Amino acid sequence: MIRWQNLWRFIPLFGLMMLLLTGCGDDTISALKPRGPVARDQMFLMELSFGIMIAVVVVVFAIYLYVLVRFRKKKGEKDIIPKQVEGSHTLEIIWTVIPIILLLVLAVPTVQYTFKVLEDHRENKDALTVKVTAHAFWWQFEYPSLGISTAQDLVIPTGKKIAFELTASDVKHSFWVPSLGGKMDTNPGLTNVYYLEADDADTFLGKCAELCGASHTLMDFKVKSMEPAQFDQWVAKMKAPAAIPADAKAGEQIFKDNCLSCHAVNAQGLGAGPNLNGFASREKIAGIMPHNDESLKQWIADPQSVKPGAKMPAFSEGAPNVAKALKDQEINDLVKYLNSLKLPQ
């Protein structure tokens, strides 16, 4: 019993730990550090609502403490029943009008920003369109006006409106880049239009924000914002054919025999799996693994061990859902070929 009574002593320690932990995290996946105009507007609304809530809490606790002190039973006083007050038009008007005012303070700018964003987007006829298709558990990005497509790594120019046309191929997912703006659902058979813009060149982290299956937490992607000139160079590199070295030809044939039915390796190709054009220039494998030979071999051998529920079949003997068991040398040759799919320097 004494042990439980002494737990209150740890409350200040827990409070200090919570305060310290609020400083942890990655700046490129924080909605509290906006890096674009949409995110800044949303941040203003969050600050406004938080300020209103804090003001309400302060006033309520101030009244509570005042009543607690003012009307407490003082030493030496006899038990008395205070004057009973039933109904007060003045108080009822006050506690009705004040919440209405607070709601208006929050609702008016919220509606204004909503219509402002919609109006700004209607006027931006030169916005770059990116078609986003969410799959279990990866992301496909198409640039219709540029004639290219890619996966997992989304590249955008800075200072330009990006019109995202969002859909899904299987179940509901949700597209979210916290540093650039709030989330938007991707629904099978429907298309949601969503606009974002990046202030400066950087790499931001994106996630699926809708519970979608076994590997929901692993459905990550990257958003790379580049200066317009650098973005144009990236587009040109994506359209240039990859130069396959002679020692990767064996792996290329293995890829054609086993992988080409799902994975494209050219600028515009689409398939059941991610487009691997420029694959060797990506920072991550499957959006989450470090890009090295060991990670790539693990992914090819048994994708389910990395992303449970992934639709890619395994190529290692003994793994579940094996499409065709490849020998170790064949997997090594395939890895060498995939690592040759680099964007031109």
Question: TL;DR?
Answer:
Its cofactor is Cu cation. By secondary structure, the protein is an alpha+beta fold.
Fold and architecture overview:
The structure is a single chain. By secondary structure, this protein is of the alpha+beta class. Among the domains are: 108 residues, Immunoglobulin-like (Sandwich); 93 residues, Cupredoxins -  blue copper proteins (Immunoglobulin-like, Sandwich). The protein contains 8 helices and 12 strands. The strands form 3 sheets. Strands 3-2-1-5-8 form a 5-stranded mixed sheet. A hairpin with a 3-residue loop joins strand 11 and strand 12. Helix 3 runs antiparallel to helix 4, helix 6 crosses helix 8 and helix 7 packs across helix 8. The longest helix is centred in the N-terminal third of the chain and has 35 residues.
Question: What is the fold's blueprint, element by element?
Answer:
Elements: H1 2-5, H2 11-21, H3 37-70, H4 89-123, E1 128-135, E2 138-143, E3 148-151, E4 153-157, E5 162-168, E6 173-177, E7 181-186, E8 192-196, E9 202-208, E10 220-226, H5 228-239, H6 249-258, E11 284-285, E12 289-290, H7 293-301, H8 328-338
Parallel strand pairs: 1-5, 4-10
Antiparallel strand pairs: 1-2, 2-3, 5-8, 6-7, 6-9, 9-10, 11-12
EC number: 7.1.1.9
Family: Belongs to the cytochrome c oxidase subunit 2 family.
Cofactor: Cu cation
